[in-house]
Amino acid sequence: MPEISLDQYKSLLTEIIKKQIIILGPDISLVKARNVAGLLVASDGSVTEIKGDPQQALQALIDQYVSLSGLIVKKTMEPLLSKYPSLKVD
Question: In sequence order, which residues have a C-beta less than 8 Å from that of residue 56 and are 6 or more positions away?
Fold first, then answer.
């Protein structure tokens, strides 16, 4: 399977954060996203930089949101993640 570029990771992470802003509101969503080491997130939810392993950042971001609302969040992310079948996410 083809590798996912850094820009694709940024795009996916941004989509996840913006979807959570709609569900959870901007305050909680941005705080949780900014808890992820190596992720720089603008005030609109856009990921501007990923330092380190983008796969780890993706998993950490998902874990942040899942810890808040579990299966609800996981279900909302499935359609987004299905666009990238080469990603392995728990």
Answer: 38
